[in-house]
Amino acid sequence: MDKGIENSNMFYQLLAESCEEKSLKWIQIQAEKIENSTEPNALFLAFSQASRYFKKETCSPSSTFEAKLQTQYANLEVSYWTLLQIARTYLVLKLPFEKEKWFKTINQLFETGDLYEQQALFAALPVLPFQKELIPRAIDGLRTNISLVFDAIALNNPFPATYFPEANWNQMVLKAIFMQRPLYRIQKLESRRNLALADIARDFAHERWAAGRDVMPELWRLIVPFVNESFQKDLEKVLATDDLLQVKAAVLAIQESDFLPAKTLIEKYPEIVKGIQKGEVTWESIGSEFQRTRV
Amino acid sequence: MYIDPHIHVVSRTTDDYEAMRKAGIVAIIEPAFWLGQPRTEVGSFKDYFSTLVGWERFRASQFGIVHYCTMGLNSKEANNIPLAEQVMELLPLYVGKEGVVAIGEIGYDDQTEAEDRFYRLQLELAKEVNLPVLIHTPHRDKRKGTIRSMDVAEEHGLDPKMVIVDHNNEETVKEVLYRGYYAGFTIYPHTKMGSERMVEIVKQYGPERIIVNSAADWGISDPLAVPKTADLMRKSGIPEEHVRLTTYQNALTAFGQSGQMDEQDWLNAPPLDQTKKMSGNSVLRGGQTPRVEGSSDFVEN
Question: How high is the ipTM of this complex?
């Protein structure tokens, strides 16, 4: 059996766990039509109409199931997907993998998609065939100003970290900062840190300060491996604010950095350091508090 | 709460959206139409249709307004036959999408042979996908065009209850209602109806199957025409229930037949998503807060 079709059955099992019989029956009929049709219309119709049968509730797969899925697709986080997204992914995987035809059809889906259809397609990038040829599509998708669509590519998605060249990766992270999206939900954010990105992030912070605005605290995570005297000055400035969340971020950045001269700066914050050591102050806790209270 | 079941918000500013929300408009329908200037490529239609189900819907949501649309090839552009044929091939991609509540605006403009052909094809499409139809009645030779639209719809076996005949006036309303269709009235200065004439029509015909809209677009028009007309109805002593039917419920009942429009979409909407609003996107930039202003208080004829 075709790998795509075999894997698509895992998505069906996910649906089977929480959807009504009527919806499951509908999607099975559609899947068969797509597999056996030479025209793309079967997929177009089913892909759109899936919204009539599947809800925009996040799916909650059992952890064993998610692990099983991840043996096929490394780091896939379907727990962030809605049932509707899973249904649409399942349908798309039923399309025979004949490259030229496949791209013609998929391109049309991308180009005519509504908000939620685009969300489904972009989040599904890691499970689609012809991964490398899809890189331009992912990069182009990030031009959107619709957060739902941006998030589908940038957050909880292994695709960018796996395939993006450095310049595109950096543009994505910077845009996520600009749009105040939660950086901790970008996969491999740490391992793909680079000096160019650290510089861009710092410039962005300076611009915000010049305009009298706050800086998203998660931004400082990007500079950790590159802290030097110059970055240290920025961190000192963050420590001088009276915003505890900002201060926590600066302390955490210094604590994680190897730049020894900066270490004395955090001696004044034993409570925060203790929190870091206990795992209570993390980039995730800082990022999620920021999202909850400031955005 | 009001519904404006006919407004071309792609042409409107964020000031309009703010004012609409402030005036109580909770949901809108944006019919696919022409754009003031004819398109010459099918790709222009594709991007326009995608905007209706994508960006514009998102833009509306940022102001707490639920956006629906209708899909169709308008009668003016049906006269470019090679292009119209390509647009017809495109339509099946869009008609099944979420929030598409009708096939429309379709019908006649100059009542040409080409218009007739594509009108009929789209009536068949509507039947096939079980969606209501929104009929645009012509500006010129209106009465005959309106009657012909209904005759042809019936010839194709459409149930009048599934058809909204729009842009009615004193000359067309009687027959449209008598034959069992929904009758849309567009409060649009100078070319269509004024609020005061609308009040008289509701007084005369009652509220059943009458739907008020603004059809606000790129021309001199008023996105607050529905709430302003409702206010004038109240001042003129029209019962509140009649106001509710003509400026809210009838539109919901008619377009709700699509299965794509549900009161819960706005009654149970998540609170305005500030994440999306302030930063996740960008109709508001860097710390702007929504501004609310009013304009004049009635729609002149």
Answer: 0.83
For A51-80, b/e burial (b = at least 16 CB within 10 A) is bebbeeeebebeeebbeebeeeeeebbbeb
Query: Which of A49, A51, A146 comes nearest B281 by C-beta?
Result: A146
pLDDT in tens, B228-273: 999 999 999 999 999 999 999 999 999 999 999 999 999 988 766 5
Which residue carries 């996908």 as its tokens? B129
Establish if A106 belongs to a structural domain.
Answer: yes
Is the Cβ of B277 closer than 8 Å to some Cβ of chain A?
no
The closest CB to that of B279, out of A44, A111, A295, belongs to A295
The answer to whether B38 contacts chain A (CB < 8 Å) is no
Q: Do B98 and A114 touch (CB under 8 A)?
A: yes
Has residue A196 been placed in a domain?
no
Tell if the CB–CB gap between B54 and A115 is shorter than 8 Å. yes
* pTM of full prediction above 0.90: no
User: What are the tens digits of pLDDT across the range B36-83?
Assistant: 899 999 999 999 999 999 999 999 999 999 999 999 999 999 999 999
Domain ranges of chain B: 2-279
What is the third-level CATH fold of B2-279?
A: TIM Barrel (3.20.20)
Question: Whole domain around residue A44: which residue ranges?
Answer: 1-128
With contact defined as beta carbons under 8 Å apart, do B38 and B58 qualify? no
Whether A206 is covered by a domain: the verdict is no
State how far the Cα of A252 lies from the Cα of A257, in Å rounded to an integer. 8
CB count in 10 Å sphere of residue B165: 29
Residue A34 lies in a domain: yes
Q: Which residues in chain A are contacts of B43 at CB distance < 8 A?
A: none
In chain A, which residues touch B (CB < 8 A)? Answer: 41, 44-45, 48-49, 51-52, 108, 111-118, 145-148, 150-151, 178-181, 211, 213, 291, 295
How many structural domains are present in chain A? 1
CB A50 within 8 A of CB A84: yes
B91 contacts chain A (CB < 8 A): no
